[in-house]
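Dear U.,

For the methods section draft, I wanted the exact inputs and outputs in one place so we can describe them consistently. I've listed the two proteins in the order they'll appear in the manuscript figures. Please don't edit the token lines directly; just add comments below if something needs changing.

First protein:
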Amino acid sequence: MYFLYSILLGIGVVALLPRFLLDAARHGKYAAGLGERAGSLPRFDAGGRPVVWLHCVSVGEAQAARPLARAILEEYPGHVVVVSTTTRTGQRVARETFSDRAALVFYFPFDWAWSVRRALGAINPSAVLVMETELWPRFFRECRRRGIPVALVNGRISEKSFRRYQLIRFFIRRVLSDLSLAAMQTETDAARVCALGLAAERARVTGNVKFDLEEAGAQPLTRELRRRFRLGADRPLVVAASTHAPEERILLEAYKLLTETSRGNRPRLLVAPRHPERFGEVAALVESSGFSWARRGDAAHGGDEGCDVILLDSIGELRAAYPLAEVVFVGGSLVPVGGHNVLEPALAARCVVTGAHTSNFKAVVAALLEKEALVQLPPVEGAEAAVALARVLRELLDDDARRRRTGERARAVLEQNRGATARTVKLLAPLLNQMSDARCQMLVNENRLTSDI
């Protein structure tokens, strides 16, 4: 079964190789960290301490895992945490996010036996924690062979993924049998992972660790953005976060309608595309819109202070822009991507708007909607989407009380749902304590050997 999986994985790589090479040449995508992906990792010495390998596929998981890593190290100060990511953007964010907590940040290995074995041999983890729904059959199997417990944390399985997994349930059941624990976000997620074959006693519900966002405090970057672009109440700012194609085009059309019907000060728009490889594409789109605009990545100049549109072509700076906004639109939701993190702007008590496609944050969005703490558009496309979005933004910018009330309610919902991190660490205790006990026994054995000599 695993041999067939490896063959199919190889065929898939060969079939997609032209695309990989094109993306690597144009954007550097996939080429980054190629040696690490092949299992060749930097020299790493844990000093004999137990190693917790924390895997985060990309940006969202890396940011969500920061409180978890902090809690683990506070509870188990004798342990070492290392962090892996799959994407290049995730790697950049992880290096910044875990700079003071992770002993090593690296790329996750390709899921072939030889690359996985090389990586496991280099890290020698005592336990592996995988964020959300990263299921790697070969990696899980090699961990089990070495006696390394693997836990899925903040786990979720969307309805779409569940349907796909059911098509290969005979194989997924085997993959899930290698998990020691699945700490799932909701009862629905737990039911799905059990329906796919995980033993019920290994599934637990902890809530969503993304509610446990750390307070950002007064960020120098926020002050820098405010000063450079002269952001203030005289011209209200709309932030469009984590956007995908064609959302930028829809946003610019909505912004045009918004400025044409503006009754007070002309609003401004900050656009932050989700993927760095699209920065150039979005820049060309903004350039052709006819609006005055500035690019964060360019050197500061006089036109920055009064421009209509700001392109945030950077990684890891979006959260610093939220306190400057009056309204935040969270992207990946006007198109069937599944949406992105609505909790970061909620932490800043900002009024959040999304499209209809929010399956990635279904439970979170439901909790916010229940308390009237979020504004969600109906399913709309193209020109209709631009009109609907412009109308909602206009209503919110004209109604200070409603806008502020919505943001304050969002912050309250976030506070009420904190605690998943603590529950997760408590569930992990048997695995982490087992690591500590094993290490103590090893030290005892080493001392005995030394005494005998």
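Second protein (the one for the lower panel):
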Amino acid sequence: MNLTVAEIAEISEGMIVGAESRATVSGFDFDSRVQRSGAGFVALIDGRDGHDYVSAALERGAAVALVSRIPEGVDGPLVVVEDPLRALGRIAKFARSSMADASVVAVAGSAGKTSTKDLIFSGVSRRFKSHANSASFNNEFGLPVTILDAPVGTEVLVLEMGERFLGDLSYLCDIAAPNIGVITHVGLAHSGNLGGRAGIIDVLGELLVALPNDGLAVLNSECSATQTLLERSAAPVLTVGYALDADVRISNASLDEQLRPTFSLHTPWGNLDSVRLQLLGEHQVVNAAMAAATALYLGASTEDVALGLSSALAAHWRMELSHSPAGVAVLNDSYNASPKAMEAALTTFARLPAGRRVAVLGAMHELGDESRAEHARIGELAATLDIDEIVVVESELSEPLAAAAEASGALVARVANPEAAFALISESLKSGDAVLLKASRVVGLERVADLLLGAAG
């Protein structure tokens, strides 16, 4: 969305310094390294102080910088506000209010948000002018940037929403005003911050409470928390899953040798037969079914939805299957990890045809009081699957996983870091073998993928 500097200052209750009030700003960025010419720059304070990068952003062509203080040596163009992050939210809320005819779909949940968001976007974009978050721009700065980047005439805006603390979804919904809310699953991701499963249900319920009475909630009938969530929605609810009484019902799900699911779907708008996804793993079937329900409700045809779902590709580091020059299959699911996602990755990996299967695993962070038990449960599960070796990047959090897998009879090796994991497994890997990489983002297992895929033999 294009706004003038004067409009930005008025909306954000800011003061213009060294800027032409009639100058146009096209969207916002918060990383000076990828600053777009003509867009604004938001000086966020999140580990680093964005005010230190205002000069770099302006040199790259930023039309204005949203700041809380005037950086040394910078005389404009600036809009000085009390809190740049909150100001960005107010600007995005204004932009959303100008899109009165657009349908806004919010996607939240403990796992599967990004895949479901991408599947919804693919399902609606053949019929509607659509826009969605890049990667996982799902928080208090990524979501406003996504809204402000929506092209003029956007008919469907698909927004992934992250939830780490109570109140997160209420804040994001206040900005985005969604018509449709999709909750993929209630698990234990971020349970340490949210006070366990009850807190997770509460924060996800914030999305349902925010929906208008004439909106729609799309819920996973396979999730045990769905009945509780149902009671929090004033909007009508569509349930999606394998159950015979699901409003949108899945049948005939299967995986091929490349782990791609095929399934059929029975819906109030007609059936989808033998849809094959490019996303890997049977857990993606429910995500795709929820996406299909959303797209069909909005008015997309069954044909367009089936084609859209079949064309959706995996996001970076999420169940990405590649092959090294040495002929080793690398299943890179290293972007993040929760118990549900770890379970899905392991069970899917165990079905990948391979000579030997080696799972390189690390800690799942932010599980709070559930951490030890959930790591141990995942270790026990891994030991029961057709996996030849489990390599665990050592930490206090991951040790229960390693110990439980070892106690259950699995071959387990402990290593200090991702580079050590690569050094260990590369000694014995042969053409036709397979490697899974799965842990929370901070563990950095994508480095193992880089080393494997960059190896010459």
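Candidate sentences for the figure legend, describing the second protein: The chain has a mean pLDDT of 95. The longest helix spans residues 284-298.

Thanks,
Y.
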